[in-house]
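Reading is simple: each integer encodes one residue's backbone shape. An example follows:

___
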Amino acid sequence: MKKTRLFATTAAGAAIALAVTACGSDSADTEDTTAADRVVVTDAWVKAADSGMTAAFARVENTGGDDVRVVAASSPASAHTELHEMASNDSGGMTMREKDGGFAIAPGDTLAFSPGHDHIMLMELTDPVVAGGAVTVTLEFDDGSTTTTDAQVRDFAGNQENYGADGEPVMGAAHGG
């Protein structure tokens, strides 16, 4: 009788341990997800513009357990799209430049593309970007995955850009939206 109880107790304990182990394992989930699966894009918008170039903004949150890196963006609204950062220049001011290597987002962090700061530059607009409409923006990650969002088009008077004939920002001009 004691042997039967011991066997039953041991078998029940093993079954519980197996069930707990099976339920607690999510390593397959993290191995099978792409960077795009681990981000949430919110508050996406684009500054209205008749022609030339404009900027897109959004919040990109990494909800996963590993870093993700945004390496490119694209939009049917523009012939050319770049990820831009604002950085200090030699004269102590700020300058806009393409972000080499893209933007890394740590687990639980949010990358904020915002006017006057990091942003997505839409160049050579294919049509006017009209307030009240929407522009599709696709972000690409270093693993090749992508996520697409519809950004609302807004009138925005802040951060007025001034560009030279070559399309480059004029020194001293604000940029990013």
User: Anything to note?
Assistant: The beta strands are 39-47, 53-62, 68-74, 78-88, 94-98, 103-105, 110-113, 119-125, 134-141, 146-154. The two ends are 80 Å apart (CA to CA).
